[in-house]
Structures are given as C-alpha cells and as structure tokens.
C-alpha cells in the first residue's frame, strides 16, 4: 500500500509540475553576461517546458528597400499633390509682380542671337587665355589667384561708363552676327570677337516666344510671319486672342526649338569660293584701240568715256560675259526657260482635252476624227519639245560640271 501511495503522489507531483500549479521550483536567474538560450521552434524537436515565445524579426534593410521601391513605383500621394499645388500657386502669384516678372525675363530669357554671345566664354576667361596662355589649371591656391588678379588690374564694375561700354560692345557683336546672317561681309578680319557658331535667321512659320511691350508686357508665344532686314525685326502673329500681329526686335525673339547654327569657318570658305568665281566669271576690261585711223574715235581725252569698259570691240557669244556670267550659259538658260513655258501651255491644252474625252466616254459618245488629230498633234509637239529640252539641259549640266571642277581644283 505504501508503494501505491508513493506512486500516486509522484504522479500527482508530475501532473502539477506539467500544469505549472503549486510548483515550488523556480528558474535560476541568468548569470551576468550569459543570457538564457532561446531555441527556435522546430518541426522535429519541440519541448513544451521551454519558453518558445521568441519569434525572429525581418531584416530592417530589406524593409527599407521594399519601402523605397513602393514609394518610387507609386504616384504622388495626396499630401505631395497638395504641396505641389501650393508651390505652383505661390510661384504664379510671384510672377504676377512686375519686378519679379522682369527679373525672370532678364535671368532666363535669351534670344537666338544672344545665346552664343552670353553662353560662350566670358571676358574673364578670354582675358586669362590672352594674358596667361600657359595656364592650364582651374584650381589654384588663394595666393596664386591674388597674384593673377593683381597682374590683371582692378576691374570697373557698376559704373555708368562700364555699362555704356558693355552695351556698345554687345550691340556691335549683334551687328556683326546680322551681317553674317545676311551675307553682307567683305572680310572676316574684324570678326574675331564673335562666337564660332552663328545662328541662322528664323524661318517663316516657326513657333517662337517673344517679349512684347504693348499692348501687354510679357512673354507670349506666336508664329513668325516675316523678317524685315531694314530694322532687324520679326513680324509675329501671337497665339493669345487680342494680341494680334506685331514687329518684335530679333534680340527679343526665341525659337521654341533649338536654333540652327552654321560655323564661322563656313563663311570663310564661302568668301574664298566667291573670290574664285568672281575671277572666273568677271567681265574683262576692254583696251581701247589706240591705233585707230580715225582720230575722232580716240576717247582718251573724254573725261567721262576715257575709262569706259565698252570702248573696245564686243566679244563673241562663245567667249563673252554679261553681268559676270558667260553669254553662252545665259543663252542656254533663256532658251530652256522659254521651252518650259511653251511646254506648260501644251500640257494645259492636253489636260483640257483629256477632261473633254472623259466626258464623251461617260455619255457614250463617239470621239470625232478632228479631236483625235488635234490630240495627236499635241503629243507630237510635246515630243519635239522634250527633245529640245533634253539638249539644253545637257548643255547646262556640262557647264555646271566645268564650274564645279574649277572650284575644286582652285586652292
């Protein structure tokens, strides 16, 4: 009996220990520096007596990356949209102020003719290249910069004379660019202070942004209608209703597309080619016949006709020139133009007869013999005109090839 009581008491003790009731045993406190071992749950091993409440967390780095991706992939949130709208409203209210509007125009609006002037090398960089050609660095010590500034001298800034000189220099450079744009140049020796890329004139129909003074002051978009070389202005039709069409100076017009430019070296090549062509096509000076038997024909003593180039004998069609062009070439071009005009008239008649023949066929009428003879006559005339036209075209083409060979061979 004693054994059975011991077994029952031990069983009760085990049950109480398992349920955690009435247990006089307590876990020993962990020693300092030795935390209790926490075992993860495993499908192969699970101990109910151990504390398995620990669950490992995810890596913070992965969370940060995931949050960044989610922010980048999504659109602006409501808060961001509201902030952007508030900034836009404040910017619009700022631009309504006259001084702020002028400041924006002066700071960021540059016309096509001013972009290469203001965005190129500044005067300080040019002066450094001229004064110190061996200087190849951009970062120097303070003592070295002070030495450079001392050698260059004290600049004049914010004085009336300085601003007047800068405005005059800017207007002079603008005038030189306009002369290059209009091909009104004789030599390029005085064009050293202009950039290497020259902007071309704006073509008609291009979209531009122009600075308008009246009836409203501001920047407005429009379309170029014409260009006036007398006062260097563009005729622009503005898009906003009520503004109409106005003439705007070229230094206040900016194209909405990148401007087309041409290198300065191209103008030098054109000048050389033009000199060669002038020497090839220039009319010769006729020497008067000094041994003329008639003394009345001697015009050396005449104050008006003594230097006239038309006193001598006229040259033949094959070797003469007129207006700098060979007479033979001018004759070919003239005949070619006349043949084209005659052919145009015959083609018009042929078109009318084709229309009339289509009407006859639609009404199921027979085409008369006279109509057929007239139609055949037009076809024969066009065939003869095409033969003559081909002959003169070959002559003009040969002449153009001769000129191109001369221009290529000449240095």
Automatic annotation (TrEMBL):
Keywords: Nucleus
Gene Ontology process terms (BP): DNA-templated transcription; regulation of cell cycle; regulation of transcription by RNA polymerase II
GO-annotated molecular function: DNA binding
Protein name: DIRP domain-containing protein
Natural source organism: Potamilus streckersoni
SMART domains: DIRP
GO cellular component: nucleoplasm; transcription repressor complex
Domain DIRP: from-to ranges: 109-214
Region named Disordered: 17-79
